[in-house]
Each structure stands twice: as structure tokens, then as C-alpha cells.
Design goal:
This protein is of the alpha+beta class. It has two domains: 273 residues, L-amino peptidase D-ALA esterase/amidase, CATH 3.60.70; 119 residues, Roll (Ubiquitin-like (UB roll)), CATH 3.10.20.340. 31% of the residues lie in helices and 26% in strands. Strands 1, 2, 3, 4, 5, 6, 7, 8 and 9 form a nine-stranded mixed beta sheet that branches. Strands 13-12-11-14-10-15 form a six-stranded mixed beta sheet. Helix 1 packs across helix 2, helix 5 packs across helix 6 and helix 7 crosses helix 9. The longest helix is centred in the middle third of the chain and has 21 residues. The protein is globular and about 65 Å long.
Length: 416
């Protein structure tokens, strides 16, 4: 039986404490909340995040050519001095494909945030998620911002997490802690994402906070690297959003030494950041629109990491694979097919395939397996597919979900 873990272990993981109940407010010096501004009919739709001091900031953005107005504003904000202090997020309206007015509205949203928080405008970031091609209801948005109370002391992470949701069914959060030069520091995060999720960074909204002190360009490098192996390895439906991004803020309030790529404990910080991003990515995949199962695809034995990622992404994106898993059909031929067209370098006479612990192919040849056991395994809520190419030492993991009737139902009436 195949007993290896799906997770690619990091040798520094033993030095990091995982906090599944933690989140954005696990690090010191951050406050957050959410409220109903009237953009949606009833649900919370306006969230805010605040750091007691300006924080080093980094962002990773969607690769969709129709980049939404808020992302343009955020890139401009971070470019000034690599810092942010306040973040404002609205759900319900994406402010994407809205031209000059959309950009003006995004800057106005940032200005209103800065006035409410008493900070320079370039220290504000604004994000929007929801229906594309609609203008922000600036009157309701302005009134909602005015309703933000006690932003310097309120620690309501749950309301923040709820206010950023669209078709999500659950809140998404995670945190870790570690010791840097004898000082305990935290990294926390929250995210939203359920549909229009496909790798190319970033097709969701994700927020990461830390009370470690991090040099801005090093934080940008760490976030970009973490995103490549986590958020960029998530696929729900193959659609890359116009809007979304991952935003990181490091305010240094733990009092530890300033971290940079040259610091001896830099890799430990990066390992913690990757754990938080990875857990948020898995939660997004698990909550894919209409999903009933989380699918993890581990490709190992590849000639390069690029090849491993190509193969893993192809399998996780295959509608035929996703449908078979929903229907509890152990049709491993669909997995082989996806690997074959992925563009990865493979030797068809070397490939092994496992569904959970059941091996279905060895050296490119079919093996007899227990169909009943395979069907029983596919009824579980987490499904692991392992593909050993046996032509190298590189590996990669991708996450996705099954394709269900509910996915079509949800997206057939999204605007209603």
C-alpha cells in the first residue's frame, strides 16, 4: 500500500506552531471588523482591517488582462513607500470593467478610508468582489465607511471574514506562530473564494498579517514565492478573476529583529507564511461552488517543478476527473489523459497512479484493484490522487474540488 503523505514536508515545520483557530488578528497590533452598508440586501458587505502602525506591505495580483480598478489603486499605494495601514473591502460589486469612473470610484473609496482612519491616502488599500460590470454605489459605500466605529480597538475577525464573502459557504482563516531570535511572532490570514478560481494569482481575496518586522522588498519576494506553491496551485473552475489579490502586511509590533532575505531565520518565516497560505488555499478549494469533496493531486518524480505543476494542474482542472470523483467512479483513465495533455515531460512506460492507497497503474500498465474499495474511498470528503512520473526528483501539489450539479445551479443565477 502507498503510505506517503500528500504534503511536501518542510524541514522547518517542526519549529512552527499551527493555530487552526487563529486568523488575521492573531498577530499583535491589528484590528478588524465588518458591517452591512446596504450593497447587499441583508448580509455583511463592508470589511476593514487596520494596523496600529504603518506596516510593510506586499501584493500579488490577478493575471487577467481586465484588472479591476481597486488593484490598480493598490499597486499605486504600495509603490509609494512599501507600506499600508488600513484596508477596506466591499462585497457585492466588483468595480471591474467600469472604465474611468470605476477608477475614480476606487480612489474615492481609498480617500474616504484614509479620512475615516486619519492616515495618508497612500497607506490605504481597497478591494472589491462581486458582480463584474456594475458601478460601486458610492452613496451607500460612503455611509457605510462613516459607520465604522472603534477601528483602533475593535477585534471582530469573524465579521471581517463574513463581510468579504460572496458565494462562499464558510469563513476561511488560519494562523501560525514561531520564535524569531527569542521573540514569539505570529502570521495570520483570512480569505474568500469559492468560484472563478483558477491559478494565475490571484483569483481570490486573501489577507495575511504578521507582527514580525519585515523589509518590504523581502516581504514581496516571500509572498510571491508562497503564492506560487499555494494559491497558484488551486483550481475550482478554470476561470481567472478580474479582481482578486493576496495582500500581506507586517507591522513589526512583536518587537523582533527586522527580517530580510539575508536574516539567518528568514527561511523559518517563509515556511510559516507558506503554511498559512497553503491552509487558506486548501480551504478555498474545499469550499468550491457546489463542492462536496476536496481533491489533492500530488505529482512526484517529475524532471522539474514546472513539469510537476503542469501535470498536477491539468488533473485538478479536468472536468472529467472532477465529475468522476463526484460520481464515485474510479475512472483512472481520465487522470492519465490529463497528465498526457498537460505539457509535462513524461515517459508513459514509467508512470504509477494511486487513488488514496489503491494503486491503479504501475509502469504505464493497468493493475487490478478492488472496485468496491475504490468507490468507498471516493465517498469520503477528501480525495488524494498520487502520480509518480519516476523520471526525476521534483514534486508539486494542487488542490481542487469535485464538479457537481450545484455548481451549475449557483452560476446559472449568480446575479439574482
Amino acid at each position: 500500500m502507498h503510505q506517503e503523505s500528500i504534503h511536501i514536508d518542510n524541514p522547518l515545520a517542526s519549529e512552527i506552531e499551527e493555530l487552526p483557530d487563529g486568523g488575521l488578528l492573531s498577530p499583535q497590533g491589528f484590528t478588524a471588523g465588518g458591517l452591512h452598508a446596504g450593497i447587499k440586501k441583508r448580509k455583511l458587505d463592508l470589511a476593514w482591517l487596520y494596523s496600529q502602525v504603518p506596516a510593510a506591505a506586499a501584493g500579488v495580483y490577478t493575471q487577467n488582462a481586465f484588472k479591476a480598478a481597486p488593484l490598480v489603486v493598490n499597486e499605486a499605494s504600495i509603490a509609494v513607500e512599501g507600506s499600508l495601514q488600513g484596508v477596506l473591502v466591499n462585497s457585492g460589486v466588483a468595480n471591474a470593467c467600469t472604465g474611468k469612473q470605476g477608477l475614480e470610484d476606487a480612489y474615492a473609496m481609498r480617500r474616504l478610508l484614509a479620512q475615516r482612519f486619519g492616515m495618508a491616502e497612500h497607506l490605504g488599500a481597497v478591494l472589491s468582489t462581486g458582480v463584474i460590470g456594475e458601478f460601486l454605489p458610492m452613496d451607500r459605500l460612503s455611509a457605510g465607511i462613516a459607520k465604522i466605529q472603534a477601528f483602533e480597538s475593535l477585534r471582530d475577525g469573524q465579521s471581517f471574514e463574513e463581510a468579504i464573502m460572496t458565494t462562499d459557504t464558510v469563513r476561511k482563516r488560519y494562523a501560525v506562530s514561531m520564535t524569531i531570535e527569542g521573540t514569539r511572532v505570529f502570521i495570520g490570514g483570512a480569505a474568500k473564494g469559492s468560484g472563478m478560481i483558477h491559478p494565475n494569482m490571484a483569483t481570490m481575496l486573501a489577507f495575511v498579517t504578521t507582527d514580525a518586522a519585515v523589509e518590504p522588498s523581502s516581504l514581496q519576494a516571500a509572498l510571491r514565492s508562497a503564492a506560487q506553491d499555494t494559491f497558484n496551485m488551486v483550481a475550482v473552475d478554470g476561470d481567472t478573476s478580474t479582481n482578486d489579490m493576496v495582500l500581506a502586511m507586517a507591522n513589526g509590533m512583536a518587537g523582533a529583529a527586522v527580517l530580510s532575505t539575508e536574516h539567518p531565520e528568514w527561511e523559518k518565516f517563509c515556511a510559516g507564511l507558506q503554511i498559512v497560505c497553503g491552509q487558506l488555499a486548501k480551504q478555498i478549494a474545499r469550499d468550491g461552488e457546489g463542492a462536496t469533496k476536496l481533491i489533492e493531486v500530488w505529482v512526484k518524480g517529475a524532471p522539474s517543478e514546472v513539469d510537476a505543476k503542469k501535470a498536477a494542474k491539468a488533473v485538478i482542472l479536468s472536468s472529467l476527473v472532477k465529475s468522476a470523483i463526484f460520481g464515485t467512479d474510479a475512472n483512472w483513465g481520465r487522470i492519465v489523459c490529463a497528465v498526457g495533455y498537460s505539457g509535462a515531460s513524461v515517459d508513459p512506460d514509467q508512470v504509477d497512479i494511486y487513488l488514496g492507497d489503491l494503486q491503479m497503474m504501475e509502469n504505464g500498465m493497468p493493475l487490478k484493484f478492488d472496485e468496491d474499495a475504490a468507490k468507498a474511498y471516493l465517498q469520503e470528503s477528501e480525495i488524494r490522487i498520487t502520480i509518480d512520473l519516476k523520471v526525476g526528483g521534483a514534486q508539486a501539489v494542487a488542490w481542487g474540488c469535485d464538479l457537481t450539479y450545484d455548481y451549475v445551479r449557483i452560476n446559472a443565477d449568480y446575479r439574482s
